[in-house]
Automatic annotation (TrEMBL):
Modulates transcription in response to changes in cellular NADH/NAD(+) redox state. GO terms for biological process: negative regulation of DNA-templated transcription; response to redox state. One of its GO terms (cellular component) is cytoplasm. Keywords: Cytoplasm, DNA-binding, NAD, Repressor, Transcription, Transcription regulation. This is Redox-sensing transcriptional repressor Rex. It comes from Vagococcus lutrae LBD1. Belongs to the transcriptional regulatory Rex family. NAD(+) binds at G90, V91, G92, N93, L94, G95. InterPro entries: CoA-bd, NAD(P)-bd_dom_sf, Rex_actinobacterial-type, Rex_bacilli-type, Rex_DNA-bd_C_dom, Tscrpt_rep_Rex, WH-like_DNA-bd_sf, WH_DNA-bd_sf. SMART domains: CoA_binding (SM00881).
Length: 216
């Protein structure tokens, strides 16, 4: 694989490609073209070819891409071959919904520990996940060697919780609060702001014609 930085937009599309390749393999398809992929995942074929080019020569001109080989390649890129344990910080309405989503039932991603300040939640097993007190968070994350955390805490506590996660050795935070977190360069933050996403959707609805569409 080429040793260069992969754009974030490309990295965000890799799981999309992986999921569709899995569907193709399960249906018995052995090869696929960038045009076929484009029609399925709603990403233009030029973008797909450019995304794939960051990883070297993955296909053959006039043949397309070998589905099984491509699936195996992206599976390794996305570490589908090893289990990733995740901590959930905050078991409120959103946190509880994430537990019910079934991350722990996935092949390679599992919420293995949850943390909250509410006494009626601490010590319980919610959707098969133990809920620990916030006071135990740093110790438990270190002990379980968790490197990724999902944060669904009140905005007022966001930066303090992030600081504790960094102290515990977490290298990636999915931040569901509207707070822009300050973290060291080695800690990646992926912010998910549902209000902003809805505002963006409303903007596109109001400014694009019915015959136009946008795809992330």
């Amino acid at each position: 694989m080429k040793t260069q930085t992969i754009p974030r937009a490309t990295a965000k599309r890799l799981p999309l490609y992986y999921r569709y390749l899995r569907v193709l393999l399960d249906s018995g398809k052995t090869k696929v073209s960038s045009t076929e992929l484009s029609e399925a995942v709603k990403v233009d074929s030029a973008t797909i070819r450019r995304d794939f080019s960051y990883f070297g020569e993955l296909g053959k001109r006039g043949y397309g891409y070998d589905v099984e080989s491509l699936l195996e390649f992206f599976g390794k890129i996305l570490t589908e071959d090893r289990l990733t344990n995740v901590a959930l910080i905050g078991v409120g309405n959103l946190g509880n919904a994430l537990l019910n989503y079934g991350f722990h039932q996935g092949n390679n991603i599992r919420i293995s520990a949850a943390f909250d300040v509410k006494e009626d939640l601490v010590g319980r097993i919610v959707e098969g996940i133990p809920v620990y007190p916030m006071s135990d968070m740093v110790e438990q994350i270190k002990q379980q060697q968790i490197e990724i955390a999902i944060m669904t805490v009140p905005s007022s506590a966001a930066q303090d919780v992030a600081n504790q996660l960094i102290e515990a050795g977490v290298r990636g935070i999915m931040n569901f609060t509207p707070v822009r977190l300050t973290t060291p360069k080695h800690v990646q933050v992926q912010s998910v702001n549902l209000t902003h996403e809805l505002q963006t959707l409303i903007y596109f609805l109001n400014h694009y014609g019915e015959d136009q569409s946008t795809t992330n």
